TrEMBL record:
Keyword field contains Nucleotide-binding: no
Tagged with keyword Hydrolase: yes
Keywords associated with the record: Hydrolase
Family label: Belongs to the AB hydrolase superfamily.
Pfam families on file: Abhydrolase_1 (PF00561)
Residue intervals of the AB hydrolase-1 domain: 20-252
Species of the source: Pseudalkalibacillus berkeleyi
InterPro entries: AB_hydrolase_1 (IPR000073), AB_hydrolase_fold (IPR029058)
Name by which UniProt lists this protein: Alpha/beta hydrolase
Entry GO MF terms: hydrolase activity
Length: 281
């Protein structure tokens, strides 16, 4: 175990199971956003939580602007954590841009992962007509960046409400806003530019790991057509339309989120393992 990486990425390990299950946050968030879902997996999995360098309780001094100017830098964080723990065939659970980060990690070292669980994924947030509509015009994203530079607290308030949806439950948006506000604005701005303007559509056909796409309803960040695009272009993918609304179902609708993940994994991991054991006996 590499203690340097464990400290750098604030790695936490929980659970009684042997199968590793690593949770990767989305933009501007730390591992605490998973607290509503991880308890459901502690009995059967080895749950691994971490923070990207520069976020949460990671070692901010390890932040390198050049490394994290692309999503590959964040993907390397994931691989570093997995290597530090010497794990392979891990179930990767990512949210939002964290899904792309996991996908990139799987392209570099496919043996590290057995399945990719993608919650609200998007390979490209920009509209690229006539064949792809990610949900945002370039001017809209530039406007978000401009607001971040001029009024970070104001941006955090607006963006948290937009991302979370579910206006009748303002406490959820407040929690997400707190996550944004706990991050160094300079690092958050760099992450935003890296995430919002990335285009990883050409990587999709090269992914060799089976994946589950969890598509939220009424998601303004990753609309339904984006999830369907992913399903169409991502080999070995399974698509599930959620009743959950907004972009953060692991926070707003944790029961449905965990139910769909567990249902998928029972088919992909638990059942084959059970059948193998049965044949052996």
């Amino acid at each position: 175990m590499d203690k340097t990486i464990m400290k750098r990425n604030n790695v936490k390990i929980k659970g009684k199971g042997e199968i590793p299950m690593i949770f990767a946050p989305g933009f501007g968030c730390d591992q605490n956003v998973w607290k509503y879902v991880t308890d459901s997996f502690l009995e059967d999995y080895q749950v691994i939580l971490f923070d990207y360098v520069g976020l949460g309780e990671s070692d901010v001094n390890a932040y390198d602007e050049e490394r994290y100017s692309s999503l590959e830098g964040y993907a390397q964080d994931v691989l570093d954590v997995c290597e530090a723990l010497d794990i392979k065939d891990a179930v990767f659970v990512g949210h939002s841009v964290g899904c792309t980060i996991g996908m990139l990690a799987s392209l570099k070292k496919p043996e590290t992962f057995s399945n990719l669980i993608m919650i609200g994924p998007s390979p490209c947030y920009l509209n690229v007509p006539p064949n792809y509509f990610g949900g945002f015009e370039k001017e809209e994203l530039l406007g978000l960046i401009d607001l971040m530079e001029k009024n970070y607290i104001g941006w955090a308030n607006v963006f948290a409400s937009t991302v979370m949806g579910n206006a009748e439950r303002p406490e959820l948006a407040n929690e997400l806003e707190d996550r944004f506000c706990s991050t160094d604005p300079v690092i958050a701005l760099q992450f935003a530019k890296t995430a919002f303007f990335a285009d990883n559509r050409e990587d999709l056909p090269n992914v060799s790991i089976p994946s589950l796409i969890l598509q939220c309803s009424e998601d303004v960040i990753a609309p339904e057509n984006v999830g369907k695009y992913l399903h169409q272009h991502l080999p070995l993918s399974t698509y599930r339309q959620m009743n959950a609304t907004g972009h953060c179902p692991h926070m707003s609708f944790p029961e449905e989120t965990t139910e769909l993940i567990r249902e998928y994994l029972q088919e992909r991991i638990d059942k084959p393992r059970h059948l193998k054991t049965g044949n052996a006996t």
